Amino acid sequence: MVVAALRMRLSMAFTARRISGRCIAPVTSFATTPGRGTPEKYLETLFRPDSIISSWAPLTNDAVILPNDCWKHVFDIELPEGRCVGVELMHPGPDHPDSLSPENIARSSHWIHAMLHPQEVAFGVSQPKEHARDSFFVGRLAMREALRLEQNSAHASILKDQHGRPIVPRGYLGSISHKRNVGVALVTTTSTTSDESETVEGVGIDIEQTLTKRDIAKKVLTPTEISELGKVEGVTIEEEVLLRFSMKESLYKAMHPILCQYVGFQEAEVTPYPDGTASVEWNIENGRHDMFQDVSVHW
Questions:
Q1: With 255 labelled, which of 42, 140, 176, 292 sits at a CA distance of 20 to 30 A?
Q2: Residue 131: its H or E element
């Protein structure tokens, strides 16, 4: 897993190489929810910019987390970049009453309604494929858990902006990543550092699954990076390719809110070291990487 946090004197990336995922399928279908009219009318109401839902409130730190066979809290880590929380979906089967099938979620008593905002539930249900639906839900569950543990009782939905980034509550920065049935979220406040010399501008997190047969080295690494593979003790070359890829993904997520431009895989070089640190060399074509200083990476 890689975590990156950028400041206007940039800082950091952390990675775990077990599990990244980032895409959520477009809204193309929706399962009818009893009592709410047609799917189209429900979505139209929920996704209006001025839509207000006053009957929902997130669970607080004192609330009892509903136990079930469908999800579990995997970890809660305090990192220099913020709070990192991992959540896993258990997949008890489509016939289980607590599974995340649209038919089960249509019940108002389903546990997901206590965990996520109605707009988040509606967006998740609207995904045409099970894996896209599960990815969205597990990512938002991780984000809600991280915010809850940070004592934040945000009532607004955490959907996506035009770039696909999660819209987190005012005063916070956040990033989500998911792979298969695991989701992780990183949240931090937008406050300055203790000496007030650096302001956090963006954070990024990424998870990758090592058990893959994809050969992505030439696509995601520079010739220099490829020539340096195999020097990290205890890490196979295949894992190192994913590690470098994951670091770049994490960094790009953190820097995008600042740059708002596409950055190719050849425009950055990351070098992991056996002690868990790494170095970053930027080569963004328009030179905007000059605004970033003191970049540090660890995994």
A1: 140
A2: helix 130-149
